[in-house]
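Appendix B. Chain record.
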Amino acid sequence: MRPLIHIVCLLLLVGLFASCDSDPILGIKQDLCWFTPKGEALDNNGTVNGKILVLYRSSNFERGKYGNCELDGSITSGYRIEKNEPEYFPEEMYARSPEEIDTLIMIENKKGKYLDPMSVRKSLSRQGDVDVFSGITEISLIDYKSGNVIRKTRHENTIIPKTVSENRLRLDNSSARYEYVVEPSADELRTYLREISDKAKMPSSR
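Structure tokens predicted for this chain:
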């Protein structure tokens, strides 16, 4: 059995490296997720320019740690939105290599005001009490070549979804209670992104 396990592990590693080779963006995903703007050159009328990459950080994101950061527009994986949903922008706008990135659109969801303690349905069969907070969605439009933020927008989300993925819950060590920060839906994000580019796809009619 041991040689078989080694073979399976080797095949998984080969598949992982092959996926990174086929998608150069995934090869720098960690650098993108930990990206810190160099400064600000704000323009209230700034819009998306050139080839883009869209980055999403959940409220649980911590710089220097893996997870809670996703890319939209990746060829092979890493979508924030569901696989059966279209990307936020037309496919031809996305950079397919690090060298092509002109504009980085960084979406960060941060903890806002306390709403209520609620029973959140974590899955179809499980639910539990968590402290719920509004989510503040900040979108930074970044000139990737210079590293400067050229525009920022801010929205508050208060609508609690019917189900919440457990990886979106966070344990508050001080209170020993789980908390959830409301995240924007894909359609809400599309609406927010329309502010910085009229090429952002419209929300679905569902």
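Further analysis of this model is presented in Appendix C.
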